Amino acid sequence: MSLTGLVAGVTKRAFPMAALAGASVIAAKSLAAFTSPDARPGSARSMEPLYATHRPTTGLQKAFIAAGSALMGFGDPTDGSHIAALGDATANGHFGKMREQMLRDPVGRRILKERPEISFTTAEWNALGKLPEGSFGRAHFDQMRRNGISWATRPPVRFVDNEEDAYMLLRYRQCHDFYHVILDLDISVVEELAIKVFEWRQTGLPVGLIASAFGPLRLPSNERARFLSDYLPWALQCGSHAKPIISVYWEEMWDRSIDDVRKEMGVWLLPQRNSVTGAENSTARVEI
Fold this sequence. Notes:
13 helices, 58% helix
């Protein structure tokens, strides 16, 4: 290899890593002072937390957090905390669609009033595994066990500056694994991206659009082509026509038939599930 080729190869590998490292440093520094836009650090006008996990940030800080977490997530899509931070930092001002969906629906209004969170005792979790084959609860249990995922891994909401909005984002995030079940999609990168497209059409939150726009760049050409030709149009159409997922009380559906749940939700499965959906044939597995 020529000296020019060697330098080019090293630069090609080193630059993305340097960019990611720089972005993470910038994002970390942007969290140094949690103040409102018109307040100085330590002043009496500094923004107070609005809920237990809230970390008040300025608009500039949110921009740095979004940029840093997007780059870090692109570099390591197996770390769901980057996608969660990106979702937090870009969600402010984009909850109108979700709120309208919930207020129009009696179940949605009940969820906003009762504020349920996804949580299980050991006995409750194991009980899902004893439900009949074909039930929603059993399908959820089997998929989580097969993929080695815990229900307790969803990060809290930190950078949303409205308490009710923060709850809606938390609910959406905690229910993400249920969307895998009703759509019958696994955790390959391709299928996670399809779910992000579905979620964006459902909620209007920018994180789904950002992930689905830039995520395919990480895919090999054959998987990218399959995503664009099969997964993307299906996810857009299914997400547009399905019942609003944010207004579903999933905890009350464990013993129901998964087929009945899909019919009630108005979702249909992707016809062309192909080799990239199998873990042994996929280039990556990721929890987003």
